[in-house]
Amino acid sequence: MDLPEEWLLDVPKAAPVAPKESTIDRVVNAGFDDDGVVKYRVRWYGYPPSQDTWKPRENIPKNFILRFWHPMGRTELDLKEGAYIVKFIGHI
């Protein structure tokens, strides 16, 4: 059955789909960028390690950073003093 044209104009269009936000699963490494800024390698929830990204400290909730350092008995200060060896060698 064909609907009258004026009825079609009253049909609401589909709502736009919001972009999917990624959620941090955990921090898996720490290091410095070329400017000496501390960055953390982030594992994203639901994504494989190949999708990890390096993020500055300011963009990561503090509890994730603390959970990274606590099991090792280290702090970010150890990284700055050279007591923590970066596990992943590569361009940050």
TrEMBL record:
InterPro entries xref list: Chromo-like_dom_sf, Chromo/chromo_shadow_dom, Chromo_domain
Database matches in PROSITE patterns: CHROMO_2
Every Chromo domain range: 22-60
SUPFAM superfamilies listed in its UniProt record: Chromo domain-like
Superkingdom field: Eukaryota
Protein's name in the database: Chromo domain-containing protein
Species whose genome carries this gene: Gracilariopsis chorda
Upper classification of the organism: Eukaryota, Rhodophyta, Florideophyceae, Rhodymeniophycidae, Gracilariales
